[in-house]
Design goal:
By secondary structure, the protein is mostly helical. The protein contains 7 helices and no strands. Helix 4 (74-94) runs antiparallel to helix 5.
Length: 175
């Protein structure tokens, strides 16, 4: 009888311990873990895009004079690229399918930047594609993490629409 009581209290204690979730520690596959992975990819993408954009601008402006400086930047380029791929792997591990597809499109757009592009207009088109891919990724993340308004949140949707209309009016007035 005593053994049965100890076993019952042990299973009760293990059930309570198993449900314990310390504050600030993300659970595997939780919203917090996905948010951290998505944020890491956004940070890595911004760093990789900024680095590539600066290198391409330097190459266009300085020409061959920049080659020695750019050659010295190769290890940092590898570090930025490996960080971007690692962040993508983190999103692929815990993200939903639409977010994974948007993340892959973002990384593809960044890797498609032609650092040897001589034409400013063509390079700007490539940069615009990266920004559009980043916006699509952020929208997919907001939807996955339920940061966007739902159909039943009428007041919130009205407020967002009002804000967007005001923002559009401000942009129009500034031009």
């Amino acid at each position: 009888m005593t053994a049965a009581g100890i076993k019952a209290s042990g299973s009760l204690a293990s059930a309570l311990i198993g449900r314990y979730r310390p504050t600030g520690v993300p659970r595997l596959g939780s919203k917090e873990e996905r948010r951290e992975a998505y944020g890491r990819l956004l940070d890595s993408a911004a760093r990789a895009f900024g680095y590539g954009y600066q290198m391409a601008h330097l190459r266009r402006e300085a020409g061959r004079a920049a080659n020695k400086l750019l050659l010295g930047q190769v290890p940092q380029t590898w570090e930025v690229t490996s960080d971007l791929i690692g962040a993508l792997n983190g999103v692929q591990l815990c993200g939903s399918m639409p977010v994974i597809a948007a993340a892959e499109n973002l990384v593809t757009a960044i890797s498609d930047l032609d650092l040897n592009e001589k034409s400013d207009a063509r390079f700007q088109q490539q940069a615009t594609a990266v920004v559009a891919a980043r916006e699509a990724f952020m929208d997919a993340c907001r939807t996955d993490l339920a940061y966007t308004t739902r159909w039943w949140q009428v007041r919130r949707r009205r407020g967002e629409r009002r804000f967007l209309r005001q923002q559009q009016a401000d942009r129009t007035a500034a031009r």
